């Protein structure tokens, strides 16, 4: 039995990058009866960038609704908000004392974010330690994430090994990332990695007319309509390739190469493909967004299950560290 675990920050509504890079592959893994899945909303992590409580509440709801919209079976598995299980912050403190300062100072994601953001706070710096706690608290084996999280997973293993060395036994389980190299980093509207912080993302749950406006913003070159175009360097084609069927992709590729097919046509095809492939998730998402008490009770049920497991680990850790007998 493998334990799968992953989380999404509640710093915005989930976008296509989160969905294709993390949510959909994680749900696929969760369907294997041999696996037990732990999916959570990293609302504490979102505080590193988002300070507004009302916005956070709305984003938490949207993320929870997305997991359910893509078919996550919350009854068989475990589904919770990180902030409601206080063992996450407790373990993060213990682990921070096993984390060498240079490991955090050299983290690529911290360096990148601290160059871009005005608010470079201590939470942003210790972000990977809280992430390690999220994983190690539940003895997780496999962590499906996007490529940008690879270093955080290496740090998690390193921190766990340091703790186990002190304990003299393998109290914390070393996890493995699972990264779909085909998906890697989903491009955003401008071709950079799709990200909330780059404002280049596609929210697939927008009403059709708004989604259409967003898709129109995808950057393309200025090749005239009549001329052939290079599908492999075009962002619309890349996004279409991640969603459409192999036959549909081949048809679009031929259209690009033949000429007489404009980027406007490709964007319309991408919109139609999204509306078709995501019709059911869009329906379920809207259902949960309008049924707050139902969503809340699903999360509360998950939080009870998560807490019980987290407490087993924390009891062992406290004992090793001399905080309990
Ligand atoms: P977050 O919310 O930034 O990203 C959530 C997941 O989405 C993936 N992702 C992408 N994948 C492909 N292409 C993209 N453009 C793209 N953008 C985002 C991310 O790789 C990630 O898997 N630190 C985590 C949240 C977290 C976590 C954890 C994950 C907190 N604790 C424990 C796993 C285990 C994060 O980056 O969230």
UniProtKB/TrEMBL annotation:
UniProt keyword annotation of ATP-binding present: yes
Stretches assigned to coiled coil: none
Family matches, as InterPro entries: aa-tRNA-synth_Ic, Rossmann-like_a/b/a_fold, Trp-tRNA-ligase, Trp-tRNA_synthetase
EC number, UniProt record: 6.1.1.2
Pfam families in the cross-refs: tRNA-synt_1b (PF00579)
Any one GO molecular-function label of the UniProt entry: tryptophan-tRNA ligase activity
Keyword annotations of the record: Aminoacyl-tRNA synthetase, ATP-binding, Ligase, Nucleotide-binding, Protein biosynthesis
UniProt superkingdom: Bacteria
Record-linked NCBIfam families: trpS (TIGR00233)
PANTHER family linked to this entry: TRYPTOPHAN--TRNA LIGASE, MITOCHONDRIAL
Family recorded in the similarity comment: Belongs to the class-I aminoacyl-tRNA synthetase family.
UniProt protein name: Tryptophan--tRNA ligase
Organism the protein comes from: Dyadobacter linearis
Record lineage: Bacteria, Pseudomonadati, Bacteroidota, Cytophagia, Cytophagales
